[in-house]
Amino acid sequence: MTSSTAIFWPVLAQVLLTYVVYAIMSSRRIGAVKAGTARPSDFKVPSIEPEPSATAARNVTNQFELPVLFFAACLSLFVTGGAGIAAVIVAWAFVLARVAHAWVHLTSNRIRNRRMLFILGLLVNFVQWLLLAIHIA
C-alpha cells in the first residue's frame, strides 16, 4: 500500500461511522415503536419523534455536513498526489474527532463537549485544506 492510497483508510472509517450511526438511529426508532413511545408515523416529521432517536437522526445529518469537506479534501489530496504521510495522519485525526463527536452526541449529548469536538474536527479539516493548498502551490 502506497502512502497515497493510505488516505482511503480514514475515508472508509468515516463511511463506517456513518453506517453505524444509521444503525443506531434505526435501532432506537424500532425500540421506541416497540416500547409504545412512538408510532411509525411519528417518524414522518422528525420534530415529534422521541429524543433518543431524534438525537441519532440529527447525528446522521451531521455525518453529511462537515464530513463532505473531509471527503473532498481526501479525494483532492489523492488526485493531486498530495496524500502523503502528513495528509493521512491529519485524515485520521479528523475521523477520531468525528467518532468522539458522535459518541458524545449519541450518549451524554453534552453540548459543551460536543461543540469542542466539532470545532476540533473543523480545525483538523482546515489543516487538510491547508495541506492541499501548500501541495498545489
Task: Describe the model.
77% of the residues lie in helices and 0% in strands. By secondary structure, it is mainly alpha-helical. The protein has one domain (3-136): Membrane associated eicosanoid/glutathione metabolism-like domain (Four Helix Bundle (Hemerythrin (Met), subunit A), Up-down Bundle). Helix 2 (8-35) packs parallel to helix 5 (85-106), helix 4 runs antiparallel to helix 5 (85-106) and helix 5 (85-106) runs antiparallel to helix 6. The mean pLDDT is 94.
Secondary-structure blueprint:
Blueprint: H1 3-6, H2 8-35, H3 51-62, H4 66-79, H5 85-106, H6 111-136
Q: Which architecture per CATH? A: Up-down Bundle
What best-fitting shape do the alpha-carbon axes yield?
elongated
What's the gyration radius in Å?
17 Å
**Structural class computed from helices and strand pairing:** mainly alpha
Sketch the topology as an H/E string, one letter per element: HHHHHH
Kindly report how far apart the N and C termini lie. 26 Å
- Tally of alpha and pi helices: 6
Helix content: over 70%
CATH superfamily: Membrane associated eicosanoid/glutathione metabolism-like domain
Strand content: under 5%
Overall mean pLDDT: 94
CATH topology group:
Four Helix Bundle (Hemerythrin (Met), subunit A)
